[in-house]
Write a structure and sequence with these properties.
Elements lengths: L3 E12 L7 E10 L5 E9 L5 E6 L8 E7 L8 E4 L3 E5 L4 E3 L8 E4 H17 L8 H15 L5 E7 L5 E3 L6 E5 L7
Antiparallel strand pairs: 1-2, 2-3, 3-4, 5-10, 5-12, 6-9, 6-11, 7-8, 7-10
Bound molecules: zinc ion.
Zinc ion binds next to loops.
Length: 189
């Protein structure tokens, strides 16, 4: 990519979830494109292993500590971009699904659809290990059905990320579905 780069800054650092020894710095750079446009590039890079990722996001994207909620009501909303940092807790209350913060947990660097697929995978696995007659079965079947409907855009739900350290973000397809509530930044170790 050509273009002039400026204002590179490290926005957040955390322990690498891949090798668990290195540190990942999220570096934010603004690029000025020849046609006068600007864009923001996020680079995730571990100094110890090969883990690295890039994302191009709108300049206005909020990465401050806070509670982000996205109301998902149709197929278009499934394309909203999601990044859950290791400090972020991700939940879908309507489906009782939660990913607790932690560097060992999977990175959710995907879109809403990708989050649903991961949950569907995890719940299906869990379902397989339940024996017939288990009282939990009905509830699990319900959650699976709702997840599959959600993947088609037929089940309305809320995707919520609570991040007390910052770094997580949601880029909604439809801005009117997104809400952000600021939290005071906590010191991370
Ligand atoms: Zn690493």
């Amino acid at each position: 990519m050509s273009g002039e780069k400026r204002n590179s800054e490290i926005v957040y650092s955390f322990k690498c979830p891949s090798c668990e020894t290195g540190t990942i710095d999220i570096v934010k750079s603004i690029y000025d494109l020849p046609d006068g446009d600007k864009m923001l590039i996020l680079k995730f890079e571990c100094g110890d292993c090969n883990f690295h990722k890039n994302d191009i996001i709108p300049l206005t994207t909020n990465m401050d500590p806070g509670i982000m909620t996205l109301k998902v009501t149709n197929e278009n909303d499934l394309k909203s971009k999601i990044y859950r940092s290791p400090l972020g807790k991700l939940e879908i209350p309507e489906l009782e699904l939660i990913v607790e913060p932690g560097p060992r947990a999977d990175f959710y660097y995907t879109n809403v659809e990708g989050v649903l697929y991961r949950f569907e995978n995890a719940v299906s696995l869990y379902r397989k290990n339940l024996t017939e007659g288990n009282p939990e079965l009905d509830e699990i079947e319900d959650i699976l059905n709702n997840l599959r409907e959600a993947l088609l855009g037929n089940f309305e739900f809320t995707l919520k990320i609570t991040d007390s350290g910052g770094g997580s973000y949601i880029i909604p397809k439809d801005k009117s579905t997104y809400k952000f509530e600021k939290l005071e930044r906590k010191k991370s170790e």
